[in-house]
Amino acid sequence: MPGNMLSKGEVFVIDTDAASREQLSTxxxxxxxxxxxxxxGASLLTEAKARMPACxxxxxxxxxxxxxxxxxxxxxxxxxxxxVTATNGSIAMAVDAIRSGAADFIEKPFxxxxxxxxxxxxxxxxxxxxxNRQRWLPGCEPLSAxxxxxxxxxxxxxxNKEIARRMxxxxxxxxxxxxGILRKAGAKNVTDLLRRIFAQGSTPQD
Length: 206
What we know:
Blueprint: E1 10-14, H1 18-30, E2 34-38, H2 41-48, E3 55-60, H3 66-75, E4 82-87, H4 91-99, E5 104-108, H5 112-127, H6 145-155, H7 160-167, H8 171-185, H9 190-199
Parallel strand pairs: 1-2, 1-3, 3-4, 4-5
Helix pairs in contact: 1-5, 2-3, 4-8, 6-8, 7-8
Keywords: DNA-binding, Transcription, Transcription regulation
Protein name: DNA-binding response regulator
Organism: Bradyrhizobium canariense
């Protein structure tokens, strides 16, 4: 990090590729973050017990063991936003990551500049006073704040890609939130969900 810049906080980066860790570390340091890199989840979990990062960038290996790391972070009250990265990521993997507490899901390869922007957005949202608010739909369990935002955009007719751009998320992440909304509402698809909402004359409520 340049010496004349105030730190924006620590970012934990777990990535099995040394070159990728170095590129991410350099980009984040240039954006005023302190960076601690890890080659495996066990090392990250040990460090997370002693300090609270501003954000965690967690690679999802092919065996999906990153989900266990993500769940452990939440179980141990590490409430920093966690962004999950993966090579050849699927919608199912994105859904599992979101359900396990990820704030974003990003497919590799990616541009380091995009990652920095996503981390900035995740930290900013986490810091907002209303970030823990919940939304309700009639007859279903509460939606998270992110799910409520996605639903509002869906109701406005936006596509997944348009929602992703507006919310500074990946399209896979939006797919994950959309799947969670449908599951909670017991809807077969988005059309079914919106038909119920408009028929009841309701919109997501704070």
